[in-house]
Amino acid sequence: MSSSPTMSHSTSTPKTATSILDHSLQLRWSLPALAVLLALPALAAWAGDTFYVGLATRVLIFALAATSLNLILGFGGMVSFGHAAFVGVGAYCVAVLMQSGVVSAWVAWPLAVGLSALIALLVGFVSLRTQGVYFIMITLAFAQMLYYLVISLKAYGGDDGLSLASRSTVGMGLDLGDDTHFYYLTLGILVLALVGVTRLLNARFGHALQAIRENEVRMTAIGFPVFRYKLVAFTIAGALAGLAGALFANVGSFVSPAMMQWSQSGMLMIMVILGGVGHLYGGVMGAIVFLLLEELLSHYTIHWQLGLGAVLLGVVLLAPNGISSFLRRKEGV
Amino acid sequence: MNGILILEQMLNGLQFGLMLFLLAAGLTLVFGIMDMINLAHGSLYMVGAYLIATISAATGSFWWGLGLGIVGAAVFGMLLELTILRRLYQRDHVSQVLGTFAILLMCNEGVRLIWGSQPLSLNPPASLAGPVELMAGFSYPAYRLFIIGVGLVVAGLLYVLIVHTRVGMQVRAGASNREMAMAMGTNVRTLFTAVFGVGAALCAVAGGMMGPLLAVQVGMGESILILAFVVIVIGGIGSIRGALLGALLVGVVDTAGRTLIPLFLNAAVGPQAASNAGPALASILIYILMAGVLFFKPRGLFPTHG
């Protein structure tokens, strides 16, 4: 896979003792970026347009979902084409619990994460027996099964989807009904997820996962339980996607089978590829660029998809490793 | 359970399966020879159907529309291959997914720009509008019989082309080992533009045939594209024989499931539950089929790559 981190010319004098499989949170520019994100609600209020807080929340949730896909696609080399299904499972878990009166996020969200993880474990167990294109297609097949299963749940809206009476409650002085509070919670979850993913990647587990991506046969030959490593990564990614789903259900107070469609899985994959496969912030950057581009283009023309398609095509042909390939060059990693 | 219903479902399944095969044939060769995922294959089907519907309306003749539309789609497919797709062959699967998804978006929006968002109507020729009595007490729409006939003829021609001609031999060689085929003197680049043109023409045939049965609309290529992928994965990527078997299997299972599952559920759990769960279960059936095939044969029924 071409996504592997490339060594630059400066390798003769390594600044740190870390391996190329390590990933840095790159605090030099990510902390200023975080400061901007923290100030965003205040800036929006000052500009008198709180619409942007809602948009930013959606972008952050997509960033979480795309980051979870990047964990397996970028670092594990597993091109899963059904990731939106796990997002949908998390979302439906929250919505269904809400309809039966469970409003506490402390109950609903962990259950959403757990259920998504469980289903990812089962799907992964079957899918990871296959390779390459067949893996892409079998993950798609499972996602389609879940999609049609949700459509058949007539008690929960079927095709039309299901509206939530309110947002989940967390207590601790946070009111998720308030868009700003919800934004900060989402931002906090994304930051924690990124820190967690970084620690995972830099641990022995993450190194093994990336080594499997580079050469699965060799890793099998030297005795690594390759299947188990991949399955655990797949399950963790499913769990994180479920968490993103729980947030999605809350942000729009609405869930529908459409969020599990294959085109949604495709969109998540496109965010990751656009941002940079196997780059820590690939999912985040892809989500930001994709959604802002969509927002911007749709202001000018109803045929914005034409422009979006052209930009995506340009990125594929001109920047093979996504937007972060420019950054990586600058960082000199 | 009466025999006529089953016979009718089998014919419907055969008809749908043959149309799926027309789409899957091009897709599996593109996939097999160039190891390329082409999400824009469904767009060729859509563009073909739009061209056929438009030309039919303008000339007042279904046949003119079909003929010119197929040529138009083939030209469009070859242009796409020459300008964009051939730059993606050497890239990894994720780049191909992104690139061809971009083309899919642009095709959808381009069609909406030219023809608007309202579906077009395409009528079958008047001579094929009525039913045909196949046996006493069983009549079947003439147009659907016609589709089955066209599907069988095209599948037969493709079989002869691939199995009994020199070009076909080169295509098969390319599908099973591209490097070796090139080393033996096959011009894979030119061959591939031609394969793409033929694939696009087959898409247009399917689009033109299905047009009168389904609506000609934006996004019509996406749902059928997924089915075509299912077909080629079941059959084994790069195998025409596998594509044919997979298409017939998916066509029959899908069509029969849609009729028979609600009937079974009706008998087993009552009409309410049957109307709720029936259609969804029927849609899931082919994915269960695919997952089952891959579980036991991870490379499909007729693997081409050694």
TrEMBL record, chain B:
<keyword id="KW-0813">Transport</keyword>
<keyword id="KW-0812">Transmembrane</keyword>
<keyword id="KW-0472">Membrane</keyword>
<protein>
    <submittedName>
        <fullName>Branched-chain amino acid ABC transporter permease</fullName>
    </submittedName>
</protein>
<comment type="similarity">
    <text>Belongs to the binding-protein-dependent transport system permease family. LivHM subfamily.</text>
</comment>
<feature type="transmembrane region" description="Helical">
    <location>
        <begin position="142"/>
        <end position="162"/>
    </location>
</feature>
<dbReference type="GO" id="GO:0006865">
    <property type="term" value="P:amino acid transport"/>
</dbReference>
<feature type="transmembrane region" description="Helical">
    <location>
        <begin position="277"/>
        <end position="296"/>
    </location>
</feature>
<dbReference type="InterPro" id="IPR052157">
    <property type="entry name" value="BCAA_transport_permease"/>
</dbReference>
<keyword id="KW-1003">Cell membrane</keyword>
<feature type="transmembrane region" description="Helical">
    <location>
        <begin position="12"/>
        <end position="32"/>
    </location>
</feature>
<keyword id="KW-0029">Amino-acid transport</keyword>
<feature type="transmembrane region" description="Helical">
    <location>
        <begin position="214"/>
        <end position="237"/>
    </location>
</feature>
<dbReference type="InterPro" id="IPR001851">
    <property type="entry name" value="ABC_transp_permease"/>
</dbReference>
<feature type="transmembrane region" description="Helical">
    <location>
        <begin position="63"/>
        <end position="85"/>
    </location>
</feature>
<dbReference type="GO" id="GO:0022857">
    <property type="term" value="F:transmembrane transporter activity"/>
</dbReference>
<feature type="transmembrane region" description="Helical">
    <location>
        <begin position="188"/>
        <end position="208"/>
    </location>
</feature>
<feature type="transmembrane region" description="Helical">
    <location>
        <begin position="97"/>
        <end position="115"/>
    </location>
</feature>
<feature type="transmembrane region" description="Helical">
    <location>
        <begin position="39"/>
        <end position="57"/>
    </location>
</feature>
<keyword id="KW-1133">Transmembrane helix</keyword>
<dbReference type="GO" id="GO:0005886">
    <property type="term" value="C:plasma membrane"/>
</dbReference>
<dbReference type="Pfam" id="PF02653">
    <property type="entry name" value="BPD_transp_2"/>
</dbReference>
